[in-house]
């Protein structure tokens, strides 16, 4: 019997793990499947664990740096955008003068410094004088609103002019050491952010091509042609968009400043700067800048507010239908609702820098997609970056006024 039992005992292979002696209880009784007595062995490569852990630590470090140094990263991002926007200008100076890249950057930087200094010299005295008169004129303007229908009686009942005078008188008393310290920190932070933007922009302008060549050397030779075309498409989209947007924004600020000074609107220089900055935000920038300008005009009187609204609305129509299509052109090739959604999504994700980058980024993605399908207009890549903003505007007006002649030319 013992010998027969040994012959009936199943043999367990050496390369398979042995379980308890004999079949499971479920099989012995013929009562269905096993109750989980077996084990599943999963083998994980040690290097895979190291890679996963390294990626997780790198992601955590990036998030920590982004949280702790958000202002620094924002300054670097803005500096890169400024460098990309000014790169066509530096290239044009370098091509026309035959100078080196560094000398062309110095020439463009010196010209910008002179332009900023001229704006400060012309605008600062008027801004200081209007700021002094603003506190005296504001209560008088509020009293004049008492004669307005519907709103006037409510303002008079609430003694709005008296409340404004009291707020102006108490404002200096609210300034304490903590307020001054906070103001000093903000000013210092603004100066450091400006330096970060300046250094980053100079680095992009001077060494940008060198960095691009070094990264190009890392691309396999068989893929360099495709990588070069991809880089030209992205560069043309971002460069054309930001260079044109800066030109249009400065033009909008100058129109606002001139209108404000002619109408005697208080803080007109501040309104001009505000319109310049907000105009860079697609679609909603005009509303942000124009509403502030009209509110300042309203403090001077209802007639000034109506005139300011009419002038700003007329300029916005001109900008949206003539100036922007001609200067920014087909850089992004997106519909207005798409640009608005992109700007809102970018603002929700990364604030103002996100709103500025979202539209050209989406336009670059679309351009790459069209290029892969063979539907991209070559003029967007080559012709758009060889012509300056004024040349593009003149060409656009010539095509609109003389379509037949433009087609023949």
Write the layout of secondary structure elements.
Blueprint: H1 2-8, H2 25-28, H3 46-68, H4 70-97, H5 101-144, H6 151-157, H7 160-170, H8 177-218, H9 224-263, H10 268-278, H11 285-300, H12 302-327, H13 336-372, H14 378-381, H15 389-401, H16 403-408
Helix pairs in contact: 4-5, 4-8, 4-9, 5-7, 9-10, 9-12, 9-13, 10-11, 11-12, 12-15
List keywords for this structure.
409 residues, mainly alpha, 2 domains, 0% strand, disordered N terminus
> What is the β-strand count?
0
Low-confidence stretches: 1-9, 14-22, 25-34
The backbone outline, from C-alpha atoms, is: globular
Mean pLDDT: 75
Q: What's the tally of helices?
A: 16
Content-based structural category: mainly alpha
Number of domains: 2
Radius of gyration, in angstroms, nearest whole number: 33 Å
Could you spell the SSE succession in H and E letters?
Answer: HHHHHHHHHHHHHHHH
Cα-to-Cα separation, first versus last residue: 110 Å
Helix content: over 70%
Beta-strand share of residues? under 5%
- Oligomerization state: single chain
Biggest sheet details: none
Can you put this structure into words, describing what you see?
The chain is mainly alpha-helical. The protein has 16 helices and no strands. It has 2 domains: 71-218, no CATH class; 224-409. 78% of the residues lie in helices and 0% in strands. It is globular and about 80 Å long. It starts with a helix and ends with a helix.
């Amino acid at each position: 019997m013992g010998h027969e039992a040994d012959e009936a005992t199943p043999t367990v292979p050496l390369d398979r793990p042995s379980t308890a002696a004999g079949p499971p209880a479920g099989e012995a009784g013929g009562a269905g499947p096993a109750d989980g007595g077996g084990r599943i062995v999963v083998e994980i490569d040690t290097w895979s664990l190291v890679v996963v852990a390294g990626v997780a630590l790198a992601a955590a470090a990036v998030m920590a740096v982004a949280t702790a140094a958000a202002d620094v990263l924002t300054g670097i991002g803005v500096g890169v955008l400024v460098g990309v926007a000014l790169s066509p200008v530096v290239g044009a100076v370098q091509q026309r003068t035959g100078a080196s890249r560094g000398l062309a950057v110095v020439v463009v930087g010196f010209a910008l410094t002179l332009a900023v200094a001229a704006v400060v010299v012309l605008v600062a005295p008027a801004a200081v004088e209007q700021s002094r008169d603003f506190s005296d004129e504001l209560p008088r303007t509020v009293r004049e609103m008492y004669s307005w229908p519907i709103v006037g009686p409510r303002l008079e009942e609430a003694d709005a002019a008296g409340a404004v005078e009291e707020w102006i008188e108490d404002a200096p008393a609210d300034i304490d050491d903590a307020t001054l310290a906070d103001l000093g920190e903000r000013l210092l932070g603004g100066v450091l952010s400006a330096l970060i933007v300046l250094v980053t922009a100079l680095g992009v302008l001077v060494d940008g091509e060198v960095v691009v060549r070094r990264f190009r050397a890392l691309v396999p030779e068989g893929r360099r042609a495709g990588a070069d075309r991809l880089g030209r498409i992205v560069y043309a989209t971002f460069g054309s968009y930001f260079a044109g947007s800066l030109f249009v924004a400065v033009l909008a600020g100058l129109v606002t400043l001139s209108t404000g000074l002619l109408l005697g609107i208080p803080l007109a220089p501040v309104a001009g700067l505000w319109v310049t900055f907000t105009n860079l935000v697609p679609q909603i920038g005009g509303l942000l800048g124009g509403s502030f300008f009209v509110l300042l005009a309203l403090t001077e009187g209802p007639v000034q507010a109506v005139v300011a609204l009419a002038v700003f609305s007329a300029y916005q129509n001109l900008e949206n239908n003539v100036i922007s299509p001609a200067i920014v052109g087909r850089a992004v090739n997106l519909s207005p609702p798409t640009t608005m959604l992109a700007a809102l999504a970018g603002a929700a994700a990364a604030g103002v820098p996100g709103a500025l980058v979202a539209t050209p980024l989406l336009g670059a993605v679309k351009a790459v997609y069209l290029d892969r399908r063979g539907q991209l207009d070559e003029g967007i890549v080559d012709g758009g970056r060889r012509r300056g903003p004024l040349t593009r505007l003149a060409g656009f007006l010539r095509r609109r006024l003389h379509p037949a002649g433009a087609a023949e030319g």
